[in-house]
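Lecture notes, part 5. Sequence design as translation. It can be helpful to think of inverse folding as translation between two languages: the language of shapes and the language of residues. The source text, in structure tokens, appears below.
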């Protein structure tokens, strides 16, 4: 059964008229008499889907903020199966472009809308029936502790090699400084709250420029398949880090984004410290070493060495931003 046969069959289960269909990123974008829709294969559970639908339905009437709502079929189900058993979901969609991470005004506008999203998600009471592996946080600092252990294992492996590549030599030459940052950040976040007393709220879980669409008079935040109960600062950090890398860790840009966020949702001292520790953790450095450690070490692409060098070249600017951020987080209430 071809994909074309599948989507034509599946769309018959929805009360709408399809005008045109084009391929999207892992999906099909349908222009219908009820606006743009996104058709996508779904491999998750029905319970997870109902959880997302319940939360997203509360975003319908928020001024200036939109989300990709699920569409139920004629039988009232969020899932529609093709003849071969492959299951699909249909969502309201947007024709707007992604947020430009090089445009200072746009990223500040996006930061304000992220704050509005977080503010609303704090009002949603997490229900017991939503509790499952994909909706619950693993604990503050858990990932950073695991990543730090991975850095340590990679260093031990490289140390034990008699003949080292240029990439491995670059890692050993830069490791101590970045590892110290990793240890401080992991310990810092882990010690912010007593276990069980973390300020967990619903989070988007995958906030970057690809999931923030700039509309006329609104911003659409889409793709909530990683929606979970956790630390909202992880959302803000992920979006901000992407922007800061594009802006060469410009301090003014970073503080303007924080000001835009806090105009909508002020942060307390612990949240500010959490954000600082997230930025302190050398995530890009860890990613390069983790990729190396889990890949075929017999051949290391030249771009991996280039990335390590770029990370080191950007470190002075990153450190300058971290210094400003540390001063900011110490001013919390």
């Amino acid at each position: 059964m071809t994909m074309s046969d599948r989507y034509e069959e599946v769309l018959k289960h929805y009360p709408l008229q399809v005008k045109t269909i084009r391929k999207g990123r892992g999906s099909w974008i349908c222009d219908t008499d009820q606006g743009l829709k996104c058709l996508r294969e779904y491999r998750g559970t029905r319970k997870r889907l109902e959880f997302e639908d319940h939360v997203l339905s509360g975003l319908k009437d928020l001024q200036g903020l939109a989300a990709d709502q699920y569409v139920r079929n004629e039988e009232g189900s969020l899932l529609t199966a093709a003849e071969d058993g492959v299951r699909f979901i249909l969502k309201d969609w947007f024709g707007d472009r992604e947020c430009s991470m090089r445009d200072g005004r746009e990223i500040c506008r996006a930061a304000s809308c992220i704050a509005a999203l977080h503010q609303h998600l704090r009002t949603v009471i997490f229900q017991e029936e939503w509790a499952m592996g994909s909706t619950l946080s693993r604990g503050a600092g858990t990932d950073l502790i695991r990543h730090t252990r991975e850095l340590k294992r990679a260093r031990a492996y490289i140390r034990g090699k008699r003949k080292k590549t240029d990439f491995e030599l670059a890692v050993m030459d830069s490791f101590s400084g970045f590892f110290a940052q990793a240890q401080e950040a992991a310990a810092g976040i882990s010690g912010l709250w007593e276990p069980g007393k973390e300020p967990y709220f619903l989070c988007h879980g995958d906030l970057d420029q690809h999931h923030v669409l700039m509309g006329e008079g609104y911003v659409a935040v889409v793709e909530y398949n990683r929606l979970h109960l956790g630390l909202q600062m992880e959302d803000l950090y992920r979006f901000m880090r992407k922007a800061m890398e594009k802006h060469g860790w410009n301090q003014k840009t970073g503080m303007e984004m924080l000001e835009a966020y806090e105009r909508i949702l002020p942060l307390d001292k612990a949240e500010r410290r959490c954000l600082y520790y997230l930025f302190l953790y050398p995530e890009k450095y860890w990613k390069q070493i983790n990729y190396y450690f889990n890949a075929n070490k017999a051949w290391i692409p030249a771009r991996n060495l280039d990335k390590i060098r770029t990370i080191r070249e950007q470190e002075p600017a990153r450190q300058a931003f971290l210094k400003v951020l540390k001063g900011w987080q110490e001013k919390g209430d």
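The translated text above is only one of many valid answers, since several sequences can fold into similar shapes. The longest helix spans residues 302-329.
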